[in-house]
Amino acid sequence: MFEDINIAPALKNRLKSALDASRLSHALILEGSDEQTRINTAKAIAMHLLCKGDSKPCTVCSSCTKVRNASHPDLHILTKDEKSSMIKVDTVRDIKAKATVLPNDGDKSVFIICEAQLMNVQAQNALLKIFEEPSRHVSFILTCPSKSSLLETITSRATAYTLGEETGTFSDELSERAAQTAQELLVCFIDESELQFIKQTAVFRKDKQFFLLTLQAALPIIRDALVLASGGRVLMSDAEEAAKKLKNALTQKKLLELIEVTGKLIENTENAANHNLSITRLSAVFYSIKQKG
Ligand SMILES: [Zn+2]
């Protein structure tokens, strides 16, 4: 399970050795990276904590299987209220009730609170009460983009791990690299075959964040092509050559379609456990638009 998570190997080892030595705090905060990476890491830790095998997480015992199928009676995954987009105090009170009873299956109950920054202050204060009376059989894992969005009274009672740079606050260098890659990819799309394009997308296989960043950088270039096509001059991207190529090769209708499918791909990729499907989809949808009559 740890193998599939997109976090630095050094951090993986740190987490694993803390887990192996049972040194992990009863309250963890996983911050940074993207939402999916945070939740995947939380689940991997839960699997380790609940595993009944010898080499944890064995991934094959009944506990590990139940964690994978999200059916473990001692693993509680909490997310925001569907209607309100907040984690409310009632949800936290429910945690408190569950945390006071002994685990069903083993010797631990694990609570994952996804996107804990969505807890309102009332809910965070209720959680604090639980943290103040820690029980040996209960572990908490909170995920959030940045622990700075939680009350200090919460963060001071938990151990935080930063999984990577928070999505959306990438370093300038990475943004620049993504902008450059987006240009090259779009030029390749116009000039080369689908096979060549697929080869170029191999760089994204192991890096979902970079893939997302590149897709985001491609959008203003395609929009610029549309601007040029309608006789406009003010460009949003720094990639006039790529925009010109797109404009010369594709109709305005096709450019609009490209913008639409790119937006959808970004949305799907953000929520996808496996972004490699999105990479395959990128070349398929782009080339189907290009080849349409
Ligand atoms: Zn196991």
Keywords:
Rossmann fold; Zinc Finger, Delta Prime, domain 3; 12 helices; 5 strands; 293 residues
Written description of the protein model:
With 293 residues, the chain is of the alpha/beta class. It has 2 domains: 2-162, Rossmann fold (3-Layer(aba) Sandwich), CATH 3.40.50.300; 172-291, Zinc Finger, Delta Prime, domain 3, CATH 1.20.272. It has 12 helices and 5 strands. It has a 5-stranded parallel β-sheet, with helices on both faces. β3, α5 and β4 (138-144) form a beta-alpha-beta unit. The radius of gyration is 23 Å and the shape is elongated. The mean pLDDT is 89. The protein binds zinc ion. Zinc ion binds at residues 51-53, 57-58, 61, 63-64. Zinc ion binds next to α3.
Count of DSSP H/I helices = 12
The counted number of beta strands is 5
Low-confidence stretches: none
Q: Work out the strand percent.
A: 5-15%
> Radius of gyration, Cα only, in angstroms?
23 Å
Which term fits the overall shape?
elongated
Instruction: Name the bound molecules.
Output: zinc ion
CATH architecture of the largest domain: 3-Layer(aba) Sandwich
Q: What is the N-to-C succession of helices and strands?
A: HEHHEHEHEHEHHHHHH
Name the average pLDDT.
89
Q: Record the strand order, biggest sheet.
A: 2-3-4-1-5
Instruction: Classify the fold: give the CATH topology of the largest domain.
Output: Rossmann fold
SS-derived structural category: alpha/beta
Q: For this structure, what is the CATH homologous superfamily of the largest domain? A: P-loop containing nucleotide triphosphate hydrolases
Outline the biggest β-sheet: 5 strands, parallel
Give the end-to-end Cα distance, rounded to a whole number of Å. Answer: 45 Å
- Relative helix content: 40-55%
Number of domains: 2
CATH class term of the largest domain: Alpha Beta
